[in-house]
Amino acid sequence: MKYKSLFRLTFWKSVALIIVATGLYSTYFRIVDGLGAVTNLNDAFPWGLWIGFDILCGVGLAAGGFTICAITHIFNLEKFKPLARPAILTAFLGYVLVIFALMFDLGRPYNIWHALIMWNPHSVMFEVAWCVMLYTTVLFLEFSPIILERFKLKKIHSFLKKYLIPIMILGIILSTLHQSSLGSLYLIIPQKMHPLWYSSLLPIYFYLSAIGVGFAMVVFEAYLSARAFNHGLKLDLLSSIAKVTFAVLIISFIIRLFDLTISGKLNYLITPSYETYMFYLEIIVGTFVPVALLGNSRIRTSRLGLYISAIFVIAGFLLNRLNVSVTSLTSYAGYAYFPSVSEISITLMIVVLGMWAFSLIVKNFPVFAEPHEIKNEVPVSSGNIILSE
Asked: Domain extents for the chain?
């Protein structure tokens, strides 16, 4: 019965298979014909969806791993440990997919290993490349106890457990470095970016936004996993970390408003333009709405309320990263870039592959704590949803 269920074709499985098939078709032409044949990129706009979404957004959305590890092992808040394993798995898969996605954007994907031996310590890209490689390795080590438990390799598990804390501290340091350095990539093009997004504080903005969306992703993943795999939802823990997201959103907005004020850019907020409208959309979706939702204790302590709040935080984050990487460069480039069908299909394929991998691992490894190990869980049925307890 288990295998029949696995291979039974449903509507969403059919959609996923079509997405993957289309993505593989586009991948073939990307490999055979090159970037120019399958993308809408050019010399004026060399970075598009695969960098803006797959890399900048992908790395940020995987930040739940280092944020949860920080509060559980650095700040020693052990009550949040039930959230750690799913967050680490999500982060690990996220970084693997980021590396996979990067190979599509590289002109010569087979040269991706060059950063290992061709050092350029003055390059921000070099620092990001090494941090991502090392942090992906760290995430695998953090996830490995789950694999060892599955195959009952107790001696190796006991040995690795002794070094998990230093490994996690290293992971937090590495993640801090490259989350902020992604913002540093854009510091060298002040004349090309729209003033609403260019700032010397871009590394700080990128780091803060990663923290905020990292916790939102933990809520998002926990809610969907609870529905998909029929386990309890740790509502009290999720509500607590939602407070951190609430605080980060407010702090980020205050810093950003202060930065716009002292740099004399407030006039751009009243200048009618495509960039201005996109800026307001980003702020409304990613700051005003989630702050209003999370600031309400009734919404923050409800299942659906937390989930909807997380969706707005994630949507605002995506808008910000895409605005920085695409919208802010449109005016200077003189080219209204929009991703091609192939770019979109490959990106969607990567997302589906990540979802498949998460589902497969969760079904075969002890990612979620056993029911008797978790307290204060709220069951989430796959049917009707109640807003609050």
From this structure: 55-373
